[in-house]
Structure formats: C-alpha cells, structure tokens
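Troubleshooting entry. The earlier prediction with zinc ion gave an output that would not parse, so I re-checked the input for stray whitespace and re-submitted. Clean input:
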Amino acid sequence: MRTWRDKQEFKTRVFEWADRLDVRVRSLAIRPMRNKWASCSTNGNLNFNNELLGINKKLGEYVIVHELLHFSVPNHGKLWKSLMRAHLGNYERLETRLRKMSM
Ligand SMILES: [Zn+2]
C-alpha cells in the first residue's frame, strides 16, 4: 500500500490539484478531525484529517479532489459527479473503500 511520505507531500498534491482545477486555496491545514475526512468552506479554507496520511494515497487523492470541487460546486449533484469522473475515473470505487475505513 502506498501512503504519503509526509504532510508536505500531501499539501503539495493539494496545490497541484488546485492548479489543475483552477481554484484558489487560501488556507490549508492537516490536523486531527472527528468523524470526517475533510472540510471546506467556499472562501477557500481547507482542512484535512491527518489520518489520511496513514492510508492509501489513492483515497487521499479522492478526498482532495472531492473537496476542491466543492469550491465551485457546493453539492454532489450531476455536475460534481461528472467532474469527479473526469478527473478520477471510477471514483465510486474509492468512495466505497473510504467509507469502509474506520476513523
Ligand atoms: Zn462533499
């Protein structure tokens, strides 16, 4: 299983995706969180659960794209789903795997 080398690698990836998705990240934190993998606000503040660092990179990638897309699409509707598919392919598989992980 490939996991993230460190926080910095994860953060770098977030900024790479932000560039690709053309959104602006104003603040980014990786810290302990209860009951969720991440949170975001429409003004560009992102928080990720530090437990993501210890699990498969692909799942972290899913969470990163999921949150960044919420900067422009605030729901999980058709548009969001088609963007997820365009960027991650079969993202539902990752979603299911992530749901099965305990936090
Ligand atoms: Zn969401």
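This one parsed fine. The chain has a mean pLDDT of 94.
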